[in-house]
Amino acid sequence: MKIILDAMSGDFAPTEIVKGGALAAKELGVEILLVGNEDEIRKVMTENALSDENIEIYDCKETISMEDDPTSILKEKKGSSMGVALTLLKDGKGDAAVSAGNTGALLAGGTLIVKRIPGVTRAALAPILPRKNGKTMIIDAGANTECRPEMLEQFGVMGSAYMKYAEHIENPKVGLANNGSEETKGTEVVIEAHNALKKRKDINFVGNVEGRGVMLGECDVFVCDGFTGNLVLKSCEGFGLLIMEMLKEVFLKGFFSKIAALLVLKKIKKLKKSLDYKEVGGAVLLGIKKPVIKAHGNSDAKTIKNAIKQARRFAEGGVIKSIEDALNNN
Amino acid sequence: MKIILDAMSGDFAPTEIVKGGALAAKELGVEILLVGNEDEIRKVMTENALSDENIEIYDCKETISMEDDPTSILKEKKGSSMGVALTLLKDGKGDAAVSAGNTGALLAGGTLIVKRIPGVTRAALAPILPRKNGKTMIIDAGANTECRPEMLEQFGVMGSAYMKYAEHIENPKVGLANNGSEETKGTEVVIEAHNALKKRKDINFVGNVEGRGVMLGECDVFVCDGFTGNLVLKSCEGFGLLIMEMLKEVFLKGFFSKIAALLVLKKIKKLKKSLDYKEVGGAVLLGIKKPVIKAHGNSDAKTIKNAIKQARRFAEGGVIKSIEDALNNN
Hints:
The radius of gyration of chain A is 20 Å and the shape is globular. The first copy, chain A, has 11 helices and 12 strands. In chain A, the strands form 2 sheets. Chain A has a 7-stranded mixed sheet with strand order 3-2-1-4-12-11-5, sandwiched between helices. With 330 residues, chain A is an alpha/beta fold.
């Protein structure tokens, strides 16, 4: 298994990305193909005394920034580390790609360099949120601001395939994001999508799921347009950050609080870990022909390692074959 | 100040509603006009030894249930406790109304019995969420599934008026819910709404606010369509419930955990209280001629008291006059 890693994208690139890649090569037994400025990458490796076992470097000088126009990846920035990583993936030089860079560019490159699976109308960006007793995939969370019913239907199929084959959830529950549980709730698009999802025999559609269901685990796949999904995802992230801040205040101020903190330290750490999106890795780019993971822009080495782990699960899984079959035989 | 209270609606009506009304009459110094079945109300008062000081009862036999068609409040259910409460409000028999009943019916009754403020296109249901250092109003959160740009613009104006006059926030920050901070982000409707809000000189528009901003307090008024608002609100509620469950697990199992719990009990209670929507009261129905508060369906006496407190702030405030002026002079 070889994972192609865009070494030059992300807030802490190349240092944290290269360190994350080396960590993955060491701990996960995968081969890593680092794409980026070889001199800079070697410098990071030397400075951090990283072993180059199972690590290859593909030298390229350009990078694509967060400010660059996403479509530039198809033109003047095709030679950027992200553009090259996706081209190498398309050409079969690795099994999956990971990048912490410009989301729009990764979507454009994924769709137009790696290309969509036949039958897929639109690729989706699907982050996975840790929640009560498991994980919930939110699909879409930003790739498609507005969606047609058949797009939402396909998101349900794609999300189900991922959660089944990559996350090994038996018969994943697919829910449609809505402002009420009744079938008649929601916009016209959502009502039509509900009817389409209900008819499918190849997924376990559990009907409408309200916002509460995301964190309380009423479904494994939460289907919505990218506008809604992005807002729901980030609302939860914001709440998570606030809670951690508040817990710090509870435990760090005062003598008794500090004793209490010592007494429950392990449990609080476990709670924090169980809600930390960095433990999951990144968002999945679904609907294209090869596995691509979008790691958080602010990823550190450990998050990159987790994203690589996720890319491995994705590549091992049979997710893409299952999507292809479902969308062409239904 | 007289608050009209629909005594027969809500999961724990009439008991908790009547108790909440009596609590408010006693603690807040307001007069309460209880609307509902007088025999049942008197029975609750006797059984709970509640004083009838500052409490009046308006007898009516019917109720509207959660299963009733919302528009029935205008026809066969006009004589229900909710219908009568709204009619009494319209007729000036009280300063504000509170109900924990069928949201759709309250919206229909609010709009068509109490009637909209001239110039208002649609009434909105606006819950107020406790968050970091304050409260955020989400407007709309369920009354209008799909919105036109001018509706979102008006929601900004109405929310700003409420947070200024009823919650006494100076120059409340109005943000537009979006999947990115750039002006070009979002659906066409949202982009148009952004331009309209930006032009208004009578509100403090802070631009697009992403999901994270809701709980982290980037704005006081979070403007969105009812579909998005409902999903964001309930995602946060779900997360809140999950956190409380997880904290219980941290503190209730094991000897050391119980000691820790004792040491930080006050602080944890404070944390819980600061995130508890029951402390806020209910959702505000904005855009109609009189103050109406929708209390949570599962309200207990204390929540009802808080909803009455909120209704008092709303009625004292000058909110409605401000909305009328803003929408007719701009």
